[in-house]
Automatic annotation (TrEMBL), chain A:
Natural source organism: Coffea arabica
Keywords of this entry: Acyltransferase, Lipid metabolism, Membrane, Pyridoxal phosphate, Sphingolipid metabolism, Transferase, Transmembrane, Transmembrane helix
Protein name: serine C-palmitoyltransferase
Protein EC: 2.3.1.50
Pathway info: Sphingolipid metabolism; Lipid metabolism; sphingolipid metabolism
TrEMBL record, chain B:
Positions of transmembrane segments: 6-25
Protein name: serine C-palmitoyltransferase
Cofactor: pyridoxal 5'-phosphate
Record-linked CDD domains: KBL_like (cd06454)
Amino acid sequence: MASVAMDMLKAASDWLTFAFDAPFARAVVFGVNIGGHLFVEGLLVVVIIFLLSQKSYKPPKRPLTKKEIDELCDEWVPEPLIPKITDDMKYEPPALESAAGPHTLINGTEVINFASANYLGLVGHGKLLEACTRSLEKYGVGSCGPRGFYGTIDVHLDCEARIAKFLGTPDSILYSYGLSTMFSAIPAFCKKGDVIVVDEGVHWAIQNGLQLSRSTVVYFKHNDMESLRNMLEKVTQENKRAKKLRRYIVVEAVYQNSGQIAPLDEIVRLKEKYRFRVLLDESNSLGALGSTGRGLTEYCKVPVDKIDIITAAMGHALATEGGVCTGNARVIDHQYIFWAAA
Amino acid sequence: MITIPYLTALTTYFSYGLLFVFGQFRDFFRKIADWWLGSNLQGYAPICLGLEDFYTRRLYLRIQDCFGRPIASPPDSWVDLVERVSKDNNKTLQRTAKISRCLNLGSYNYLGFAAADEYCTPRVIESLKRFSPSTCSTRVDGGTTTLHNELEEVVANFVGKPAAIVFGMGYVTNSAVLPALIGKGGLIISDSLNHNSIVNGARGSGATVRVFQHNMPDHLEKVLREQIAEGQPRTHRPWKKIMVLVEGIYSMEGELCKLPEIVAICKKYRAYVYLDEAHSIGAIGKTGRGVCELLGVDTADVDILMGTFTKSFGSCGGYIAGSKELIQYMKYSCPAHLYATSISPPAAQQIISAIRVILGEDGTSRGAQKLARIRENSNFFRSELQKMGFEVLGDNDSPVMPVMLYNPAKIPAFSRECLKNQVAVVTVAFPATPLLLARARICISASHTREDLIKALEVFSKVGDLIGIKYFPAEPDKQQQDDGRVKLE
């Protein structure tokens, strides 16, 4: 066995030596001495080039034929557009026959109204109705265009200035729909990658705004300052290096879902310690809290320029439609630029 | 299709390039100035990073005075514009007390209901006194009045569907209804030039979104077939439902949608059709019922009809019309119905009165006259502009006409020159339109008279020659054959 192997090896090495010593293996081409090894290397190079030029094996693609697509389209059955209507869905709310003031008419009987958010009783107030009638006769009902294209009426600008003066901020921006105030304001400031710490019990518009902004959202327990402090601590520890990271706390002044009031002085203390910006939604507190109705900042005796952004839907104490967004000087500059181009 | 001349494309790219380079220079100097003066952020992160608002700060602010012009009168055919001045090179603008009366070609006042109307306004004031400006509550919690119920019935009858639901704002109607109708596992196929509200609603719904080329039913069919055959991405399960989103009149193009073909394709492949008639309801069609009437499509074939009241009815708000079950489901699940304050009662009354005028139920033929006038006005204006050599987009009968400008410098030039001649126009650029295709958008109203339109045409001709936007050769001017025909240069 070993001797056969040895013989084969000897034969192979004899062949090799022969190849190396062959006459053409000793040629001199262009002054370069060609030894036999160059011949073998040349052969190897040819083999390599041949292999590289081969196409790699790909499993053959078989796109669907027209007939197959037709069959699939025929087979496909969509779900019905809406699920089956159950009895709960058939609920019809009662229809009011007069203004939604403290007493209202339903089906001819007078009832006491505990459902409307008419905190200051301004529904049906004579002065309001007079002012509205005057402006209806002058301006008509609609603005027939967005703010950028001849939809800005001088009363809009006057209203913004008046609200800013009332709250003590440099300027404000009006929105035409209360619900969209919060879910437009949040994406204007919070972009992808920012961190938002928000209370668990906020209402739908804020939740929707958070989703639209695509930022990282961290929840803390409803109205629990200890939980908020822990969350802020955790977020700051995790993101120590990111200086460009914008960080926000979103709270409501009076929570729509539970009725609790947020402890603003505590929140401002935490915000200044950890360098977060605060977004406060004062829909239910503007006009209702504070000795002159200026909202939670007055109630908790916090200077209003410590709160970065204040939004409010005006369909509660102010008895009208729409929303407003205001804040301190830096924030308003930015929002004006963003909003004007939007 | 818009075909941009080669030379114009080159000059437009060059202009934008120049603006970009200048903007970068100024940003660079601003960075140095900030570092020198020291930042006063006190450890807070800056609200806006460098490049996010570059376009706004360096390009938009230069021409800021062409947008957001305040008015001091109702946005009717003639409007009082408040003049503004800027002391810091257009960064901020202050109102002055001066007012100039201008011809309004920018507001969406298609049927002329913007100003106080003899039939609508007394009824609106009456309902204001009865129901007060706001109900202060959501629809389900005591914000539904008899007026709201009446409004929904009237709208459903007008549009031609069994039932309708009304919301307080048009934009929110799209953004809040799409997520309620379709969710994860569904497919949305939307036209490539759909409005921002539709795009937001589609994104917010969580469904997969695909786009088909603007107004091309063939491409829609191709996309549908491909998607049904492939199924959901990665898992290849069959789609739960497919919805196709189109608009009646596209606001930036002025074109009508090819509705009969699209509806036929959707029927064949069992997809649902959602039609957004924001600009077309009330303005086109023989009795003002929108694009379905104009193109002869049965409203029962379109699953969901959506529209807004801001444009033709001079009010505010949006509606969805569909089958009774659909509307019942919407009332149960749509967040804009459950959490938002209901539409203001005087605004609701304005819509009801406007619809009554359009249908002729107020006893006069003002509605029919208005519809005929807006059709005549749009066709006259469009044909005259095309004769003068402007590049005008859009179909016949559509009251929206974009006139192409292309170069960024022509945008403020056109706007300011027209304002000097007492004509107020709207110009749109990036990001509402593609970068190269800036345009001026003209909206015709039924309250424009023939003299108003002729004055506007004269001004446009003058300004067009000055700026150089007559991209097509003007047609040779015919001799005065018909009486009353004004000879236009």
